[in-house]
Amino acid sequence: MTYDVNTETPEGERRLRRVAKICEGFGHRVQKSVFECILTQGDYLRLLAALSEAINPALDSVLVYRLREPFAKHVSRLGVGAVFDQRSPFVL
Prior knowledge:
Elements: E1 2-4, H1 10-24, E2 28-31, E3 34-36, H2 41-54, E4 61-63, H3 71-74
Antiparallel strand pairs: 1-4, 2-3
């Protein structure tokens, strides 16, 4: 999942913080606006609902990429960054 929130106004800054907080509640941050998440269908729908309420659709964008299982087979990692085992326990 990735997002881009227009922060040209104070309201935009608030939306950015709100979107980041929502994303942190559902996944693991891998870059400033990029998250990896393992979600049930219910969590996926809750995430989309929360994000759609948090953004201004005329100014902001959110992209959610759904990967197929097995995830390790469909994701290649190069360069710096810890490998995150999404099956392990995870505390925010």
